């Protein structure tokens, strides 16, 4: 689920945890683990060096001229955004070649405006202007996107990304039982996704996993290499060292990599407990010859998702108390005669109960709430801001079901955000950082998903508040949230490494990160020709991914702040902020400033000074009962975590097949120092 913000079409969908280094060094296969340690240490060191960057700005320090430019830009950009968004809406709600052409033409015009605006913005000495709002707007414009590229290069980059998307979207594979009459026409959505979610056959899951990567990676690899080169060129023209540094800069904090790394280090023990529990249950299900080693990573195709990024689809295999499932209120919704319109009204009432804004007239007249029968539409739920301070819509092919009721609350949160920052200049009409929109929307769902809330809105008669039901609920949430943490962490770690260190051994680096942080390994041998990262749409479609990790952490911080304002008493996972005017005021304060202030300041205000950056504690507090339960369940496990054996790492490491890994003398010296210090601290020797 995503949102369509000003001039940005949401498509849905740096640091390293070295806390476990001593365990890695002392693993059962020291040579393999040492090689892994060297790679990770090299990556860490290469990213820790200081780098002086000269921002792109001119010599014009005239504040009056800067303000005049910003006024003109605000009008032009808002009008262009309206035009583009209308063209996008027309296409996704009526998919035809003609509407696609209109959309592409509108996007082309917007690209030209962005280029001209960037050229004007960088003429100002924006960092020395006395007006902080003007300085912030010009800063955001000067560092925006890839408009610094010459037009031919920009067109080439656009063409490469479009080709990669086309290859991805057109990829088809053969069915598992491929008879002579079978057609090789299975696509990722819905067929392969359904297989990964529902099949409990090791061989069928392996077939779907491998076939999808065979159909995408090899065809995408060379284009992705070209994409990396041009993206880096654009970043350097904007004053950055590489494209990864440019992607991180939009968060406006110097220590983003440290914050992300520290948070993951804090949350990793909870993930390892979940991993150990799930591995044990999978071992019980997948009998020999598909034995899962109790101290090893998990084969990547067994976790219910094509990328093992979310494990909620294997809930049936790991649920501890099957008779105590969370109530699905779908049947009650049907019994009460719910319609898509009523579901939207229920979602709206959630916000108005807290004193927030009702939906404008245009919303009810122009939103698409049900699947049309006379045309082809893109049904993925999304929220839309038409940039004219009047027109806001939701696009959702709504079914009367609990999951869709939750989705309507998610999308309605995006609309509330649009409404609250609508009076700001165009540049500021956005989330406080790239993760904030999704963080707020998912924070609201942490209230709506509680049995308490379903009872309060008349969809659940009896609240079953016993320990076993509680653990089931938290485990289901953990399979969705906690299991996603390492994948959300490593996607951009890998991409930033490619941007900074080059495209050699990309597949090896991908699986090094996944095995180290996520504890998953490929089920079959992989080579550099496979390019497994290309199986993930966000990577080949040029969409930064770290926002999903940051959003995961922020949503619990925001949830805790809202619950504190609401005066909630009890465990955090039982909190529902419905009807709390105090929580509504905090929510309005967060949303009304948009991107006009640094997100760290907004977070400080929302949390009453307790946080000025990412903080793992609220997420740990939310899952505390589950964490204690997992520790008891895992007390007899041989290992909490995993050791990647040489046999496992040989599935993907290039040096295992004659490849090589080279680091320069400076990095080698630093790695050696880190290694010796680790040996000394653990074993009492240093040579």
Strand order of the largest sheet: 2-1-4-5
For the CA atoms, what is the radius of gyration?
A: 25 Å
Query: Helix count?
Result: 28
Ranges where pLDDT stays below 50 over 5 or more residues in a row are 1-54, 655-687
Overall geometry comes to globular
Q: How many strands? A: 6
Largest sheet, in brief, is: 4 strands, mixed
Helix content: 55-70%
Distance between the termini: 53 Å
Note the beta-strand portion: under 5%
Average pLDDT figure: 87
Q: Which descriptors would you attach to this protein?
A:
4-stranded mixed β-sheet; 28 helices; two-stranded parallel ribbon; mainly alpha; 687 residues; single chain
Any overview of this molecule?
- With 687 residues, this protein is mainly α.
- It has a domain at 63-142.
- The protein contains 28 helices and six strands.
- Strands 2-1-4-5 form a four-stranded mixed beta sheet, sandwiched between helices.
- A hairpin with a 2-residue loop joins strand 1 and strand 2 (8-9).
- Helix 10 crosses helix 26, helix 16 packs across helix 22 and helix 19 packs antiparallel against helix 20.
- It is globular, with a radius of gyration of 25 Å.
- The model is unreliable at 1-54 and 655-687 (pLDDT under 50).
């Amino acid at each position: 689920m995503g949102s369509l913000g000003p001039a940005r079409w949401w498509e849905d969908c740096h640091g390293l945890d070295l806390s476990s280094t001593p365990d890695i060094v002392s693993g059962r296969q020291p040579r393999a683990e040492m090689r892994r340690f060297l790679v990770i240490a090299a990556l860490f060191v290469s990213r820790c060096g200081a780098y002086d960057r000269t921002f792109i700005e001119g010599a014009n320090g005239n504040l009056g001229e800067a303000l005049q430019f910003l006024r003109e830009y605000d009008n032009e950009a808002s009008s262009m955004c309206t035009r583009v968004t209308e063209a996008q809406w027309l296409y996704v709600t009526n998919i035809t070649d003609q509407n696609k052409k209109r959309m592409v033409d509108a996007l082309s015009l917007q690209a030209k405006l962005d280029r001209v605006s960037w050229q004007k913005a960088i003429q100002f000495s924006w960092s020395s202007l006395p007006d902080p709002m003007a300085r912030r707007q010009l800063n955001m414009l000067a560092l925006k996107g890839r408009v610094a590229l010459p037009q031919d290069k920009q067109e080439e980059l656009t063409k490469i990304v479009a080709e990669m998307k086309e290859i991805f979207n057109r990829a088809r594979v053969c069915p598992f039982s491929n008879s002579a009459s079978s057609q090789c026409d299975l696509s990722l959505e819905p067929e392969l996704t359904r297989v990964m979610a529902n099949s409990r056959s090791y061989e069928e899951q392996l077939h779907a996993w491998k076939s999808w990567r065979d159909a995408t990676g090899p065809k995408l690899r060379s284009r992705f290499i070209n994409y990396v080169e041009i993206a880096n060129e654009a970043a350097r023209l904007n004053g950055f060292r590489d494209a990864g540094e440019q992607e991180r800069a939009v968060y406006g904090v110097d220590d983003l990599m440290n914050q992300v790394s520290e948070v993951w280090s804090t949350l990793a023990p909870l993930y390892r407990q979940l991993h150990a529990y799930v591995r044990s249950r999978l071992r019980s299900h997948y009998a020999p010859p598909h034995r899962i080693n109790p101290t090893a990573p998990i084969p990547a195709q067994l976790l219910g998702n094509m990328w093992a990024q979310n494990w909620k689809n294997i809930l049936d295999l790991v649920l501890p108390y099957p008779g105590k499932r969370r109530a699905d209120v779908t049947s009650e919704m049907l019994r009460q005669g719910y319609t898509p319109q009523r579901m939207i009204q229920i979602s709206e009432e959630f916000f108005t109960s807290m004193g927030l804004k009702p939906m404008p007239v245009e919303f009810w007249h122009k939103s698409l709430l049900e699947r049309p029968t006379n045309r082809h539409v893109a049904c993925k739920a999304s929220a839309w801001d038409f940039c004219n301070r009047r027109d806001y819509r939701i696009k959702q092919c709504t079914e009367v079901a609990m999951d869709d009721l939750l989705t309507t609350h998610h999308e309605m949160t995006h609309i509330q955000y649009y409404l609250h920052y609508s009076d700001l200049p165009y540049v500021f009409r956005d989330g406080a950082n790239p993760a904030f929109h999704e963080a707020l929307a998912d924070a609201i769902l942490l209230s709506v998903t509680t049995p308490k809330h379903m009872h309060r809105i008349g969809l659940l008669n009896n609240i079953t508040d016993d320990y076993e039901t509680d653990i089931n609920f938290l485990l289901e949430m953990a399979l969705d949230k906690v299991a996603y943490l390492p994948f959300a962490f490593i996607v951009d770690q890998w991409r930033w490494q490619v941007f900074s260190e080059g495209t050699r051994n990309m597949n090896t680096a991908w699986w090094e990160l996944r095995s180290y942080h996520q504890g998953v390994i490929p089920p079959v041998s992989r080579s550099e020709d496979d390019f497994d990262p290309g199986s993930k749409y966000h990577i080949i479609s040029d969409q930064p991914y770290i926002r999903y990790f940051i959003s995961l952490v922020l949503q619990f911080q925001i949830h805790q702040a809202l619950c504190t304002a609401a005066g909630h008493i009890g465990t955090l996972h039982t909190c529902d902020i419905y009807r709390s005017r105090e929580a509504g005021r905090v929510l309005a304060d967060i949303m009304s400033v948009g991107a006009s202030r640094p997100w760290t300041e907004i977070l400080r205000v929302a949390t009453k000074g307790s946080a000025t950056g990412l903080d793992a504690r609220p997420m740990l507090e939310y899952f505390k009962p589950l964490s204690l339960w997992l520790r008891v369940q895992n007390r007899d496990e041989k290992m909490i975590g995993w050791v990647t054996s040489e046999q496992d790492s040989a599935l993907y490491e290039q040096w295992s097949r004659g490849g090589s890994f080279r680091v320069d003398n400076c990095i080698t010296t630093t790695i050696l120092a880190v290694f010796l210090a680790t040996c000394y601290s653990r074993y009492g020797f240093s040579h």
